[in-house]
């Protein structure tokens, strides 16, 4: 499974932006047929996406289709099934395993976007459904669904509860760490870094983003720092020939510490 730190949205009705998005350094590019496209432009956007995907390499992009409850869903899934460039389908407003099964008709991994109370309460079934590639948190829509203030202490606590549930169910289902929602303030890179660092510390695997200028900061935060990588390498090297726990720089290194060090080295590409 490809590691995804940053997943960049590009509007489906702006196909000219796709090459820039693919060159942005984002680990995944999400072509959006849902929120970014007005209802009256859905058919034209789908046709434009079909054309632009023909110039992409195999399994290059993720497509966010319209929700299963909409009249656009079936044609969106047919587009994904027929395009070799589609690596995965992002399913918005995922609220049941049945929703995932319908999206899996594309023949692609499904990324359920959990963004409602119903979705959070159905996480066990959603995470365990066949074809799920990873869970994604639609934090802004979730806040809207619950009518909470995401910037308040109380609202953040509710959002964190949903994140923690996603983390637990993803781990229990042997899925990669979930992706966190977007940071909507495009000119607030410091705030973006802070949110990304908080998400990473909690165990999230990456973040959605809505502008190429956000990609580098997200990739940096969700990658091991130089100090983290140096320590991890020392632990792995020191463990060679050791039997059981040992001491390094005054710190006990046992199986969990060694496993974490190896994971850190792997996340850095084994360098």
Short overview:
The protein has helices at residues 18-22, 42-53, 73-82, 97-103, 117-121, 123-128, 139-146, 153-172, 189-202, 215-221, 226-239, 255-267, and strands spanning 6-11, 28-32, 61-64, 86-91, 110-114, 136-137, 179-180, 206-209, 246-248, 251-253. By secondary structure, the chain is an alpha/beta fold.
Low-confidence stretches: none
CATH superfamily of the largest domain: Phosphoenolpyruvate-binding domains
Q: How far is it from the N-terminal to the C-terminal residue, by CA?
A: 19 Å
> How many domains make up the coordinates?
2
Helical content (DSSP H or I, runs of 4+): 40-55%
Structural class: alpha/beta
What would you report as the Rg, rounded to the nearest angstrom?
Answer: 20 Å
Would you write up a description of this structure?
This protein has 271 residues and is of the alpha/beta class. The chain has two domains: 216 residues, Phosphoenolpyruvate-binding domains (TIM Barrel, Alpha-Beta Barrel); 42 residues, no CATH class. Helix content is 45%, strand content 15%. It contains twelve helices and ten strands. An eight-stranded parallel beta sheet has the order 6-5-4-3-2-1-8-7. Strands 9-10 form a two-stranded antiparallel ribbon. The longest helix has 20 residues. The radius of gyration is 20 Å and the shape is globular. The two termini are 19 Å apart. The model has no long low-confidence stretch (mean pLDDT 93).
